Amino acid sequence: MRFHNRSSTPSYFSRRDQIRLFRLVAALGVILLAILYASRESTWYWLTGKPADQASQSEKQLDPDRDVDFNVRQDTQLKPDEFRSEPAPHAALPEAVSVQQENGEYDVRVDPRLLNSVSDSTLGVREHEAGALYYLLAKAAAIPQNVLEQSADPAPQFVVIMNDSNKYRGKLITVKGELKRLVPLEVEDNKYGVKTLYEGWFFSRDSGTHPWRVLCTQLPADIPQGPDLKDMPSVQITGYYFKKYGYPSQAGKLQTAPLLLARQIRWFPPSETAQAPTSSGAVKYIVALFLVISITLAFLIWRFTVSDQKFARSKTAKLMEQPDKSMDDLKDIETVDIGEVLKQLGERADSDSAEQPETPDQPDSDKP
Fold first, then answer.
1. Is the overall model pTM greater than 0.70, yes or no?
2. Which CATH number is 67-72+89-275 given?
């Protein structure tokens, strides 16, 4: 006897199989979200703790005064009969600003040697530093704003740039913050054609109560201006870092602040602030994955519903319908005892064998 293993394709029209498929797809979506969430290092900080360097950086962000010298460097006082003569630092600046290369691309780089005359933590901008200041302002004004923003690096932490000012001098950086003051300034005579100048003071997310200073040559339309902006609009500054600028604070104390030289201030009106891009890149991927899973599940449910309706109208569904009968209908069915049936079959076989006559043996024809 042979047994044939007949493989048949499972039917996916049953409601039970459809629910199982739906659960499998939902479980797959949950697994993908769990993988994405577990891939972030910050997810496991509750178990391992923050790295030492990252923990120290977060502390500095909360307290910019830590290990930062905001004092203005002042010259030593001379006695009445003393005098001092020091040569002013000199840097050979070009007569004109050139921002385009031979291939037509814009050159946003700055030769560090042009800024040798700039020194940090001095009160205001000194006379021998004015040439370099107007050179950078003219260079930023000659380059389109989108080129500057695409070429700039994110600004380092406020504490870092204050402690390592020489490293970032002349670098093109971008920093976001809230504008506190924006007023026009008088322009000094310069050979680079700078005609307008605006001064802005703003606070970044990690600067605390210590502001940044920015000088720019252009302003966007309708940007709030004034010596004390109450609403403090959100702005983004892309410019060249110049120096630690010394200034007298409102409390009468001399302090320093980072000075940026920019083309213009990018302003985010209140209606656009909510639409500003978020710094967390993973959010958009999570939302996109959730939408894909939702659309897939909705499509599967729609397909299952259509299949159920189509199957309900088919002949197979009608044949598979259970007859509307109860157990009482089975009482009229004649039953048979298997033992009695076997006994009758045995008696019939015995009677047939008794009626059949015996056949005599035939003699062999070959024998004499």
1. no
2. 2.40.50.140
